[in-house]
Request: fold
Amino acid sequence: MDEKTFKERTKAFALNVIRLTEGLPRNRAADVMARQLLRSGTSVGANYRAACRGKSACDVIAKLSIVEEEADEADYWMELSSDGGFIAANKVDPLRKEAGELLAMTVASIKTLRSRQQKN
Reply:
């Protein structure tokens, strides 16, 4: 996948996370989950954009590692929100699937970059 398409997907992911968090109930537990999900879910795209401006392969790998962590964390908060009964699984499952795909592509990119580094 090219850089432009990945940027678009991470931006769409962030917007969908924002919409999802707005649908969570208003109580102490859901508020904490919403804040954490909002932070991690929007961070995926922001950190990917930072990785695109990396100054070296090591810098890009470090920034992509943050993308990896944030996508996984966003998935965790969505899972917790669903399993805790705060939001219906059918509302969160497509977004969890996208988080998994973004995570897999990020991991693949990191592996490719590391492999290239070892060859040099």
